[in-house]
Amino acid sequence: MVKYIQKLLKALKIEMVVVWLTIVAAVVLGQLDVIPNGVVLPHSPEEFKLNTIAIVLTIVGIPVAIRLFTLNTTKGLRRMNNEEALRSYHIWSVVRVIILCVAAVFSVAVYYVATSVSGAFCALVAFCVTFYCWPSEEKISSYLEGVNKE
């Protein structure tokens, strides 16, 4: 079982680094003007819409991502063996970081397209929350203890 935990841990850490690199790549693309800078006029309805979407995506996406992970990794544990539980843990970890990655990358794009600070702030918040999701052997072991107790 330790072998499976180590394999899962390695996969989760690689996936997390890929998410971080994706967010950094979005910033680099914005700096290189691949994401067009300042296309949306300041104080325009388009800027308002983009900022609103970025803010809502961040404010709703972060709690939803964390709550979805918690709900789907705790309910129904009685019917899972350890292998199924690890598979479920992996799937929901990926879903969680994808939601956070989408929020961060969209906010980075909004920052460059609309040159508004709220996009940068939302991207920073979503990026920082990914550090909360960093996998550890303790988290996986305590999760498996919950599976075995049920």
Separate helix tally: 5
Unreliable residue runs = none
Gyration radius (Cα, Å) is 18 Å
Sheet of most strands: none
Fraction of residues in helix: over 70%
Determine the N-to-C terminus distance: 18 Å
Give a written overview of the molecule.
This protein is mainly α. The protein is 81% helix and 0% strand. The chain contains 5 helices and no strands. Helix 3 runs antiparallel to helix 4 (117-132) and helix 3 packs across helix 5.
Short description:
The chain contains 5 helices and no strands. The protein is mainly alpha-helical and 150 residues long.
Characteristic key phrases:
mainly alpha; elongated; 150 residues
